[in-house]
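Bumping with the actual sequence this time:
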Amino acid sequence: MGPIGVEGGTLTVRAVRLRDARAWSRLRIENQNSLMPWEPTGSGLWSARHNPAAWPGLHSVLRAEAKAGNMLPMVIELDGEYCGQLTVGNIQRGALRNAWIGYWVDSAVTGRGVATGALALGVDHCFSTVGLHRLEATVQPENAASLSVLHKVGFRDEGLLKWYMDVNGAWRDHLLLALTVEENSGTAVERLVRAGRATF
């Protein structure tokens, strides 16, 4: 998906690859302090869970879920370099046509339109090619940066989920945000372009 221009450079989103192991591991370990406060609690040391040797198993699960139509695991690239991930999960068909969407980016590129641009690309892909009707996102109320990203792309607040997820060793409240096809008039990327946040 893409490319589009953002403040940080040229942005694209693509499917995960087996050869992403080293780039994934390096960024996850380098960004431990900025990611841990917002991510689900895992077992074992962060460094062990994000060692390059852990990627093949994770990649296999992600690809199997993608093949089954349950998930879209994607890599965010800035100027051709791996700088984060965008994931669409729990894809439901039928009368719902709903999924959740989430993302993380390297702290070195935050504040440069990368997460916002990648989210917009993901939204447009889900509402067009994938044929979804609604996307949801959950974020802790304290995560102002992520809330800003979601609001820029057009997500609206729906409510507070009390003690929703085990994050960083404790059950945390999360805000639920959503966006539907009806609210996404035109495309999310076009809205960013009109707002001066992206270029084609």
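The tokens above came from a reply further down the thread. The mean pLDDT is 97.
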